[in-house]
Amino acid sequence: MAEGTVNQSEKMVHPAVKPLTELLGTWKGDGEGFFPTISSFNYSEELQFSHSPNKPVIAYSSKTWNLKSGQPMHSESGYWRPKPDGTIEVVIAQSTGLVEVQKGTYDMNEGVVKLKSELVGNASKVKEITRVFKLENGELSYVVEMATNLTALQSHLKALLKKL
Questions:
Q1: Is 122 helix (H, G, I), strand (E, B) or coil?
Q2: What sign for the dihedral angle of Cα 10, 134, 40, 97?
Q3: Is the distance from CB of 75 to CB of 61 less than 8 angstroms?
Q4: How far apart are CA 139 and CA 160, in angstroms?
Q5: Which own/partner contact pairs does 40-47 have at CB distance under 8 Å and 24+ positions apart?
Q6: DSSP 3-state of 13
Q7: Which of 57, 51, 55 lies closest to 25 in space, CA to CA?
Q8: Hey, which of 6, 57, 145, 153 would disulfide with 130, CB 3.0 to 4.6 Å?
């Protein structure tokens, strides 16, 4: 591409999404899950962030597999709506039927997106979920914390992913 010209795909990214363009694409890696009420487990994950041209939203999807057997485990999808003021709204529907409405902040100078549930729907036990995503040295990591009607907010999932 000639110097001074703008890549067509960059030109079509909505201004609200531009600060998060580094997230766009497919990420793959491994994670681990744990919680007082379940047995610990390891998983492989593929996470995807995509953007429709000129829309102020990022589509999000995640699929996980058992690290040992390769059997599918969990999937979820939703939308991230970043705002110019550094806040973000997220909706996620999980394959278990649970739905999350989250609000938070992003600071891409620090490479961090922090989310906290405003609503956890269709869940008899889960009361709160937080997610923190970090972009560092070309890797994406996250930590998910969860609170239930029996447990306080604590770590549930963590993973480290690389862009494909």
A1: coil
A2: negative
A3: yes
A4: 7
A5: 41/66, 41/67, 41/73, 42/66, 42/67, 42/68, 43/67, 43/73, 43/74, 43/159, 45/159, 45/161, 47/140, 47/161
A6: coil
A7: 51
A8: 145
Sign of CA dihedral 58, 27, 144, 124: positive
d(CA 53, CA 58): 10
Residue type, 29: G
Q: DSSP secondary-structure letter at 15? A: T
Residues 86, 114: contact at Cβ < 8 Å? no
| Token pair 């899950």: residue | 33
Catalogue all structural domains in the chain, each as residue range(s) with its CATH number: 15-163 (2.40.128.20)
Dump pLDDT digits (tens) for 9-45: 556 899 999 999 999 999 999 999 999 999 999 999 9
pTM over 0.85: yes
What are 144's two structure tokens?
């998910």
Give the span between the Cα atoms of 112 and 31, in whole angstroms.
18
What is the rounded CA–CA span in Å between residue 19 and residue 143? 21
Q: How many CB atoms lie within 10 A of CB 64?
A: 22
